[in-house]
C-alpha cells in the first residue's frame, strides 16, 4: 500500500470484515486481535479485489517499507534529506544498506536508486503538468543541483526533454478542446 487512497481501501475492508485496527499507515496495518486463518483469507481476498495484497513474509514487508520510505520522501515531503539516500534508508529501517539494496534488487528486479530516480521523475512530470513552476524552480524543489542536471536525468529516464514533455501535454489539451 503506497498511497493514501490505498490506506483508505484497507481501512474500509477491515471495517467491512468487522476487524478493529489500531492504525493503518501507508504500507502497514495493526489490528487489535489475532486473526484466524479464515479471517486472513477473507482479508487477503478483499484486498486483492482492490489491487492490493496481504504480505506476511519478512522480506516482502521490508521491501514494502523501502518503497514507502522512498515514496514518502519524494511525494509527501518537501524537506531535503541531510544525508545520502543509503544512510537515510539504513537509519529509517534499521538495516545495513547493502542488505536492503540486495534484497530490493532481488525482489523488485531494479535497484533502489533506479526506483528512487523513477519516482523523482514522476514527481517532476506532475509539477510540469501543473505548470505553476519554472524548470529551475522544479529543479530546486526536487533537490537537483541545476535545471540542466534535472533535464539530463529526465531525458535519460523518459526519452524526452522536459520542454518536449510539456509541449506534448499542451498539444493533447489542444486536441481535446477541439473535440
From TrEMBL:
Keyword Nucleus included in the entry's annotation: no
Membrane-spanning segments: none
Span of domain HTH araC/xylS-type: 89-168
Claim: Transcription regulation is one of the keywords in the record: yes
Domain of life of the organism encoding this protein: Bacteria
Gene3D superfamilies: Homeodomain-like
Assigned keywords, A-Z: DNA-binding, Transcription, Transcription regulation
Entries under PROSITE patterns matching the protein: HTH_ARAC_FAMILY_2
The protein's name in its UniProt record: Helix-turn-helix transcriptional regulator
Amino acid at each position: 500500500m503506497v498511497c493514501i487512497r490505498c490506506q483508505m481501501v484497507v481501512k474500509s475492508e477491515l471495517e467491512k470484515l468487522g476487524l478493529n485496527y489500531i492504525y493503518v499507515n501507508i504500507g502497514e496495518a495493526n489490528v487489535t486481535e489475532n486473526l484466524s486463518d479464515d479471517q486472513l483469507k477473507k482479508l487477503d481476498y478483499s484486498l486483492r479485489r482492490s489491487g492490493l495484497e496481504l504480505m506476511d513474509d519478512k522480506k516482502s514487508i521490508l521491501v514494502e517499507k523501502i518503497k514507502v520510505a522512498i515514496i514518502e520522501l519524494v511525494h509527501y515531503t518537501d524537506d531535503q534529506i541531510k544525508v545520502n539516500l543509503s544512510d537515510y534508508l539504513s537509519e529509517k529501517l534499521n538495516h545495513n544498506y547493502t542488505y536492503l539494496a540486495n534484497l530490493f534488487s532481488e525482489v523488485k528486479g531494479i535497484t533502489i536508486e533506479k526506483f528512487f530516480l523513477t519516482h523523482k521523475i514522476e514527481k517532476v512530470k506532475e509539477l510540469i503538468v501543473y505548470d505553476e513552476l519554472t524548470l529551475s524552480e522544479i529543479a530546486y524543489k526536487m533537490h537537483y543541483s541545476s535545471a540542466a542536471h534535472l533535464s539530463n536525468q529526465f531525458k535519460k529516464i523518459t526519452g524526452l526533454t522536459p520542454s518536449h514533455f510539456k509541449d506534448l501535454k499542451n498539444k493533447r489539451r489542444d486536441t481535446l478542446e477541439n473535440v
